[in-house]
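Reviewer 2 asked us to include a model.

Predict the structure of this chain.
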Amino acid sequence: MDQLRALKYFVKIVELGNFSKAAAFFSVPSSSLSRRISDLEESLGATLLKRTTRVVQPTEVGREYYLQVSEVLNQLEKSNEVVKSYQTVPSGKLTISAMPGVGERILLPLLDELSEMYPDLILDVSLSDELASLSYDEVDIAIRGGHAPNERVVALPLIDNTFYPVASPDYLAQMGTPKSALELPQHKGIYYRMPSGPHPWLCEIEGQWREVSAPAVIISNADEWLLDKAVQGKGIVMMPRWILKPYVERGELVELDIQPQVSITQKPGLAIYLLYQKQRYKVPKIKVAVDFLVERIKGHY
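Predicted model (structure tokens):
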């Protein structure tokens, strides 16, 4: 930074032809400029300025040095303006990782609007159930289901992700409608495979958690295919209401009222979370994306 300051002093002295005027421009004593220029000349091993009592002029090598340095300083100023603009205008590559179900049904349909609002954003979106690292080099924003993570990130709940059992009217007409969780092992189960494997069906009976899973007939991480199989009457499936809603509204699937309530986990508070690093919220591209997604998603599903 000392050399950069000396270069700025040198350029301004050449332009104004006077130490005092240059010192007034920078609001520093003339002696400071003189000392900086002397240090610069010593480091270069060349005399850059001819000093007289009335005027200061560059030497031949000083003139050449001025032309090159002033060009460098102008480019540096332009670069600084680009960085300042980047810090105020949402721009650059925004990397988002989302679980496929949320990504396909909710996230992707919203991104066209986000792009229209902020045309300088470059969207880099990946859909995967695998956990992504919220590091500076990998993912800016992640959307994941489960419980709030323990890692040092902000986790904003977007959607309730509690799983509910459903089956088609045809299946229930054929196999009967289970009312008790203890009846489920006599039914057929359709299971969504999480990264850790198919989730079991659990319920709490007299203070003890028990597995009440039905024998599996289909297992997959393709949720729409699983739902189609449930509509065809192949078995009971458990999925969140935000996925089930259109199927239930069309009468293709019926939500089952089973007691005690069946769950896929012993811990309450399943949700879809939007994750980001707290210290990066000030970055414009991340702030506008987080605010936009929370406003468009939370409370609407």
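The longest strand covers residues 92-98. The mean pLDDT is 89. We have added this to the supplementary material.
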